[in-house]
Amino acid sequence: MKEIQRREKYIHRKVLLVDDEPVNRQILGLIIQQHYNVICAENGLDGLRKLSEAPNTISLILLDLIMPEMDGYEMLKKIQETKEYRRIPVIVLTSDKDAEVKCLNLGASDFMPKPYEDPKVILARCKKAIQLAEDRILINENERDSLTGLYTRLFFLQYAKQHDCYCHDMSMDAIVININRFRLVNSLYGRAYGDRLLQTIGSLIAEILNDTDGIACRCEADTFYIYCPHIQDHDKFARSFISKFEKAVENSRITLRLGIYEYVDRTLSLEHRLDMAKNACSKLRNTYKSDYNIYDSLLHEKELYNEKLIHEMDRAIAEKQFKVFFQPKYDITGDKPRLASAEALIRWIHPEFGIISPGIFISLFEENGLLQKLDRYVWNETAAQIKDWKERVKRYVPVSVNVSRTDIYDLDLIDKIKSILNEHDLSASDMYLEITESAYTDNTRQIVETVNELRSLGFKIEMDDFGSGYSSLSMLANLPIDALKLDMQFIRNITRSQKDHNLLLVMLQIAGFLNVKTVAEGVETREQYEILKEAGCEIIQGYYFSKPLPAEDFEKLLIKEM
């Protein structure tokens, strides 16, 4: 049964037998026709003609050397010169040992001696030659990126690892190349134009590989990896590559970024080395010109530091290393400023690094999908503190907490917030919710639906960092908000820049038209305070009144002010 299956597996393969001797054709044909369809030709010219009639269906050529009109040597040359024939393995039929080297140089795969061997040996040679050729075709089809001709990621990684094994003493560099805002480029200029850009980069990388013993691949979309012997002058290399690219594309809006990790550490995995180059490249993500960046010890230390923070986040929450501070907000609409509310701000009191600024870990956690967990911790701690003040001190003010963009997309957001309030016996009026302006512009419809539901439950919603994003007036008119919180960057410059002063007045007018309150954060001086009060701002927050305070100090302020 197994023998029948093996025969059926190869029964459709076609073998071209080229020999001018009818007896040889008959003997060899009888042997191989047990497993293959045999096509016979009397000489090289006849063989090429029959090959041209079915070039994609021939799996093997059995070729005699000494023949009239066109001999086997000439036919071998023609096969190697023709791209569609080159893939077909050729077994040379000869009794001349001296001819073997010449035939190998011309592209022959194997030899079959005359007089012919045992039929089983002949069939085994045919089967092996076909298998090797078909495996090579399969490898070639998957080895190269069809668009750029560079290796695919899988083969690149394998060949790079082989290179390390054979050249373990050679200093190597890992390089990553990206096109800035490639998705936007595709949207503006079309997919065909984007493909031409990728082909251009592939060609330029191929030039580099011709001069070095390196390898390269297109990893995905517009990401290219190069692994090559150390380049002495990276500035010259990067500037030359960028210059050639800019000349080729003739479009100043299309720019590149290159990340270079030199003298790679071979104790790290190859993927990690490439990630380091990619990290250096990512540091240029918001640049608007072509540039390069080298992964150095500072980047390495920062990466290790970030990894440590990510790794220790859960333990920090369990041990309450994160502390909620409270910054007072004052109502300045009356004759005397009045403590009206507060904002909950998080600080990380790390046992090794001391106080870590939220400017460091907030964005890090957001990038790694951990911010929701931290936000919920802050909500819980804030609710517990409000409850404590209510019950023990009998004095409290509403406290606003941040709701991040990632929170908005959580389908269970409302249930989670309600659960926290219920657990601490609080109402929606005890906690205000701050949502950044940029979150509103991400997915306006979903934000509006979520915020409307929150407001229907009694929550007050503040748009945080207003003026730093891209809100349109028409969008603002339809947003469900209770207060606009002015971005502190505007507040800092209102005493020095007339333009910022005028812009502040416009934003306050917008708030008036929308019938929502305004909150100014980052107020640090008497002059800023007076300008804001005169302009009609209602709530002020900043160092002019107080820095963020730990709970025990804010409690003293509560007792004093209320």
Could you characterize what this model shows?
- With 562 residues, the chain is an alpha/beta fold.
- It folds into 3 domains: 2-142, Rossmann fold (3-Layer(aba) Sandwich); 153-295, Reverse transcriptase/Diguanylate cyclase domain (Alpha-Beta Plaits, 2-Layer Sandwich), CATH 3.30.70.270; 314-561, TIM Barrel (Alpha-Beta Barrel).
- Helices cover 50% and strands 20% of the residues.
- It has 23 helices and 20 strands.
- The strands form 3 sheets. An 8-stranded mixed barrel has the order 11-12-14-15-16-17-18-19, surrounded by 4 helices. It has a 5-stranded parallel beta sheet with strand order 2-1-3-4-5, with helices on both faces.
- Strand 4 (90-94), helix 5 and strand 5 (110-113) form a beta-alpha-beta unit.
- Helix 3 (44-53) packs parallel to helix 4 (72-81), helix 8 packs across helix 9 and helix 14 (371-393) runs parallel beside helix 16.
- The protein is elongated, with a radius of gyration of 37 Å.
- The model is unreliable at 1-11 (pLDDT under 50).
H/I helix tally? 23
DSSP strand count: 20
Q: Span between N and C termini?
A: 95 Å
CATH topology of the largest domain: TIM Barrel
Please give the largest β-sheet: 8 strands, mixed, barrel
Shape: elongated
How much beta, percentage-wise? 15-25%
pLDDT averaged residue by residue: 87
- The structural domain count equals 3
Task: Describe the strand arrangement of the main beta sheet, using strand numbers.
Answer: 11-12-14-15-16-17-18-19
* Uncertain segments: 1-11
Instruction: Specify the helix fraction band.
Output: 40-55%
